[in-house]
């Protein structure tokens, strides 16, 4: 299930947005090509901020779980 792989998915999304060569967002990272408003309110900086925090929380949580198993 996607929920069980959420830390991996968030980490992938963060790397994708971080490594995109654009400055303010593009269809390769945070924009959807069919949005009727032209992605007016979509923010690459905002996406990076959210993904960075989610990645830190989710992937730190995983490491703590691993410690409990040792
Ligand atoms: Zn981009």
Structure, explained:
The relative contact order is 0.17. It is built from 2 helices and no strands. The chain has 70 residues and is mostly helical. 57% of the residues lie in helices and 0% in strands. It has one domain. Zinc ion (ZN) binds next to loops.
SSE topology string:
HH
Terminal CA distance reads 25 Å
Number of domains: 1
Radius of gyration: 15 Å
Judging from the principal axes of the Cα atoms, what is the shape? elongated
**Oligomer class:** single chain
DSSP, total strands: 0
Based on helices, strands and strand pairing, what is the structural class?
mainly alpha
In this structure, how is the largest beta sheet organized? none
State the helix count.
2
User: Level of helix content?
Assistant: 55-70%
Average pLDDT for all residues: 88
**Low-confidence blocks of residues:** none
List ligands, each type once.
zinc ion
Beta-strand content bin? under 5%
Write the topology of this structure:
Elements: H1 6-19, H2 44-69
Helix pairs in contact: 1-2
The protein binds zinc ion (ZN).
Short recap of the structure:
By secondary structure, the chain is an all-alpha fold. It has helices at 6-19, 44-69.
Structural features:
single chain, mainly alpha, 2 helices, 57% helix, elongated, binds zinc ion
């Amino acid at each position: 299930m996607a929920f069980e792989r959420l830390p991996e998915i968030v980490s992938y999304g963060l790397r994708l947005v971080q490594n995109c060569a654009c400055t303010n967002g593009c269809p390769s990272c945070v924009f959807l090509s069919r949005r009727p408003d032209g992605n007016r309110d979509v923010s690459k900086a905002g996406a990076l901020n959210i993904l960075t925090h989610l990645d830190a929380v989710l992937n730190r949580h995983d490491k703590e779980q691993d410690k409990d198993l040792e």
